[in-house]
Amino acid sequence: MSHDDFPTDDPAVVTCGLPYANGDLHIGHLRTYVGGDVYRRALERLGQETAFVSGSDMHGTPVAVNAEQEGVSPERFALDWHERYAATFPKFNVEFDNYGHTHDETNTEVTQQLVRDLDEGGHLYEKEIMVAYDPVDDQFLPDRYVEGTCPYCGAHARGDECDEGCQRHLEPGEIEDPVSTITGNPAEYRERTHKFFEVSAFSEYLSGFLDRLEGTSNARNQPREWIEQGLQDWCITRDMDWGIDYPGDDGDQDLVLYVWVDAPIEYISSTKQYSERVGADAFDWEAAWTEGASDAHPEGGEIVHVIGRDIIQHHTIFWPAMLEATDHAEPRAVMASGFVTLGGKGFSTSRDRAVWADEYLEEGFHPDPLRYYLATNGGFQQDVDFSWEKFRDRVNTELVGTVGNFLYRSLLFAHRNYDDAPIADGTSDEVDERIEAAIADFEAAVNDYSVRAVGDAVTDLARFGNEYIQRSEPWKLVDDEPEEAAQVIHDCVAIAKAIAVLFEPIAPEKSEHLWDQLGEDGSVHEVTVEAAREGPAGDLEEPTELFAQIEDERVEALNEKLEARVAEAEGGERDDGEADDEEGGDDTDDTDMTDIEPLSDDRISFDDFQELDIRIGRIEEAEGIEGADDLLRLRVDLGAETRTIVAGLKQLHDVDDLPGTKVVVLANMEKAELFGVESNGMVLAAGEEADLLTTYEDAGPGTKVK
């Protein structure tokens, strides 16, 4: 791993969190997988050697429980869902180089060997612990068979995670007031011998790892609190029959490995399977994953994990500790996505309140507009709200009105007025510079781990193209100034070619169709950004419009269908089982993952609003305040003056990234003194993750919000 800007000379592996083989995929789940696919395609456009891998998470209690309810084996149950996932992802142009599962032979062997290495390295030990036990049903209860009260925040929690509260990982025996989810009986704790991984010994390493870690700021900042609170060692075995056997002596054979041991190891296993299929010369999995395995890559490759934010702890604490203990390469970056809500409310699988992946396709929609919506609608770590109305507006305004409009009008004019391309000898300086700027924006987006900015680079270029052709009016020049008209159209076709290359990560199928319309050789999937710098060379085909308008009547019908389905499902479960996935975090039972409060019925007058002096500011400096864990001292440029403002952002944002950020400030907030620092204003942010409010266009410091 280099930490140099991409592309680097080291092989990269991009992974997506494993979907839990337990139920249908909806568009909330797709956000992570689309994001991962966009990012690996963008790396490849830069010329980065990349493997994109994932697999289905087959083990764990929910699989065993639901399999028993359906009267099939856990293996058969999970394999059925695995096969459906493997068929669904390509339909959304999410194309893994390898998609395996945690129960296959490769992952079993790799997992058991890695656990042996942990043991031989002195990182495992036995410990008598208190495990939940159902005295009526006479059985020990694995963590997912237990519910109770979180010992840290007091919220209702599952046995392995405080899923409704602080989202902290819980060890066996920690949950208070345990109840068996099988029988509803109160559970009791009894002693049981289990295996533990000494995570606490890696606290210093993990602090340094988080300092080096790239990706989204929530993946760096959230785990620091857990380290500061003191890491607890990790129980890696469970009392179950379904899972990978602990690779110990005969006395340990009644224990299986905890699902979060073998799940991330599937990343290694899936990469290995890819190498075995294509050959080590094409991609060397050992060079990517193992320190010292290759003289050319002594520290391993560029590992990038794309996950849901509910599994940050597993990927930034447990997993890197396991890798460090066994001489594997550490992750370079973790990109943790926010959740997807539906019309401001959480997805509810039990009430069929979701837009299912197969349903979206059955409605006749193309996958690329959904990819665009999920990738570009807000920052990757922010929550995204889906509604058919918002989807329509983004498609009609940006894909049809901006990108599609420019491409169709430019290529149609070129096709009708010129035999082929290139139409002029070369691209004009103005357009050449604008294409270079778009490529620079694209490269910066990749190195900033921003899939949204990848899409913005294209829409901004198309917006320029619309302005350029409208300003130049080649239809007025074609008769009187044919050379000048030819130059304009050549420029527009050059912009279209650059769009085809740069838009490939977001809209791969539509970009390939555009590439064919341009008459270019080969496939757009095989070229790098260098192709965007080359002028058009092929014979133009008569263009067709890439994106279709979504009519209001269609949206109304889709909403009616969703409402009818929810009404029908009230009081009943989906008969295909809930997608209780380890990764997605979007499946709730009619709860809202973003804790959106009801809108207030108390109204204020327009005059009251006018009394709020809300301004655009730009953060010039940011530093911590001594003695305050959460507070930062900000120096914010408000145009007329620069003020000191104290804000609780320290644990939620990368402090070094804040200078230069535009924010929205309540300027006439009463002054307050916090930890000896006078705060003169309030920076506005949304939600528990302190999503900073900013501007869409170029409003400068001091601009009044009204």
UniProtKB/TrEMBL annotation:
Cofactor: Zn(2+)
UniProt keywords, alphabetically: Aminoacyl-tRNA synthetase, ATP-binding, Cytoplasm, Ligase, Metal-binding, Nucleotide-binding, Protein biosynthesis, RNA-binding, tRNA-binding, Zinc
One GO BP annotation of this record: methionyl-tRNA aminoacylation
Binding site for Zn(2+): C150, C153, C162, C166
Ranges of compositional bias, category Basic and acidic residues: 564-574
Keyword Transport among UniProt keywords: no
Record-linked Pfam families: Anticodon_3, tRNA-synt_1g, tRNA_bind
Enzyme Commission number(s): 6.1.1.10
Family (UniProt): Belongs to the class-I aminoacyl-tRNA synthetase family. MetG type 1 subfamily.
Protein name in the entry: Methionine--tRNA ligase
Provenance organism: Halorubrum lipolyticum DSM 21995
